[in-house]
Design goal:
Distance between the termini: 46 Å
CATH architecture of the largest domain: 2-Layer Sandwich
Number of domains: 4
Shape: globular
CATH class of the largest domain: Alpha Beta
Oligomer: single chain
CATH superfamily of the largest domain: ATP-grasp fold, B domain
Radius of gyration: 21 Å
Strand content: 25-35%
Largest sheet: 8 strands, antiparallel
Helix content: 25-40%
Length: about 450
């Protein structure tokens, strides 16, 4: 079978790699893909910008065009923006089974206000919050509540829409900056209670339609818990980023915590998806805070997390293509997910200056002997092929450049392998945290 993967980041490279490992999959078509998928076994990049027949089409139209011309069996959507813009609706309307919610379900990430309304309506354990469209009312509420407090832009903001303000001054500045700099995404603000605890991520597969709801087969199945490390510097210091690395599973997450998550967050979410008659066949990401009162939901993402995907998908001891088909054809309730024992650690290498201003176009050198000796896998995120070079050359194109993901029977073994593999990576300005997964590395409030 052939599969279409939409996206160009580290998450999409990991998805394509995992699909290509299946004996059932003959080819993975990546739109647009990146410098990693360009050389991944069984993978082929198609960039609409480089294709005269596609370059004047919207992404939705281009995806349908490629899916039909390549005769793919199903599609997997990586990023949130195309989902919010209805790419799953377009593909399903064209007869292409698609892993990714339709636009109505994707609004759970596209609008933080809608997501909070949903959580409260269906009894999902979460932080208290209020929503404001008027800046002066928002400032008055913050002054009444005091700090610490969390300010979120309502719309999609590429990871730049959330501020955890420790002081009243930080909170007031956040209101000013989010409303001034984020355009439509910042016109509405969700102001949320500050929760004390430690953050974790739980990714899950979802298969909900009106038909499956009527049959009683609609379901959500959680993956192993993971943790992303958002802060730039060791010890969870410095500015927030899109993610400096991830680890899976988590020794500090107990079965009791996961049972509470299932009861108070996962099942109420499923209830809500069914009640709202959403066609949600895809993945969902639960951002959680583990508090003294148990886990509480911070946010929904309507796709796999990044860089959590680079740590979670390698732990799968089942055929990922079969999971994707179970999601689309309504048999997820019968699908058995098995997981490898041990741990996966995936530190991320970023461009110097990230998450602020950084240079692009830096040549990346990969020592395959070092990486292979460590038993690691490099997942490319912000890197492309330099077509001007006489021989294929990988150059940086983004802030988060790549992740080195390694497995070990123990956490220590996985950590050592991942960092040994990073020793085989080099580009000008390369920077990475040295404590992913270690004690004191996790963000906590």
């Amino acid at each position: 079978m052939k599969v279409l993967v939409i996206g160009s980041g580290g998450r999409e490279h990991t998805i394509a790699w995992r699909l290509a490992q299946s004996n059932r999959v003959s080819e993975v078509i990546c739109v647009p893909g990146n410098g990693g998928t360009a050389h991944e076994s069984k993978c082929k990049n198609i960039n609409p910008k480089d294709n005269p027949a596609l370059q004047n089409l919207s992404l939705n139209e281009a995806a349908v065009n490629v899916a039909r011309s390549e005769k793919v069996d199903f599609a997997v959507i990586g990023p949130e923006d195309p989902l919010a813009e209805g790419i799953a609706d377009s593909l399903w309307n064209a007869g292409i089974p698609t892993v990714g919610p339709k636009a109505k379900g994707a609004a759970l990430e596209a609008s933080k206000d809608l997501s909070k309304i949903f959580m409260k309506k269906y009894g999902v354990a979460c932080a208290d919050s209020e929503t404001f469209t008027d800046k002066s009312s928002a400032l008055a509420y913050i002054r009444q509540k005091g700090a610490p407090i969390v300010i979120k832009a309502d719309g999609l903001a590429a990871g730049k829409g959330v501020v955890v303000a420790k002081t009243l001054e930080e909170a007031e500045n956040a209101v000013e900056e989010l409303t001034a700099n984020l355009g439509e995404a910042g016109k509405k603000l969700v102001i949320e209670e500050y929760l004390q605890g430690v953050e974790i991520s739980v990714l899950a597969a979802v298969s909900v339609t009106e038909e499956s709801a009527a049959k009683g087969t609609a379901c959500i199945k959680a993956f192993l818990p993971a943790r992303d490390h958002k802060r730039l510097l060791d010890g969870a210091q410095g500015p927030n980023t899109g993610g400096m690395g991830a680890v899976c599973p988590l020794s500090d997450v107990t079965p009791e915590t996961m049972a509470a998550f299932e009861k108070n967050i996962l099942q109420p979410t499923l209830k809500g998806l069914i009640a709202e008659k959403m066609d949600y066949r895809g993945f969902i990401f639960f951002g959680l805070m583990i508090t003294k009162d148990g886990p509480k939901a911070l946010e929904y993402n309507v796709r796999l997390g990044d860089p959590e995907t680079q740590a979670v998908l390698p732990m799968m001891d089942f055929d990922f293509s079969e999971l994707c088909e179970a999601i689309t054809n309504g048999t997820l309730n019968k699908f058995e997910m098995k997981w490898k024992s041990g741990f996966q650690v995936a530190p991320v290498a970023v461009s110097g200056g990230y998450p602020l201003k950084y240079a692009k176009g830096k040549v990346i050198t990969l020592s395959n002997s070092v990486i292979d000796a460590a038993g690691a896998k490099v997942f490319i995120a912000g890197a492309i092929e330099d077509r001007r070079a006489k021989t294929p050359t990988l150059i940086t194109s983004g802030g988060r450049v790549l992740a080195c993901s390694a497995h070990g029977d123990s956490f220590d073994e996985a950590w050592k392998k991942a960092y040994e593999a990073l020793g085989g990576v080099n580009f000008e300005g390369m920077f990475f945290r040295k404590d992913i997964g270690l004690p004191g590395a996790a963000e906590s409030n």
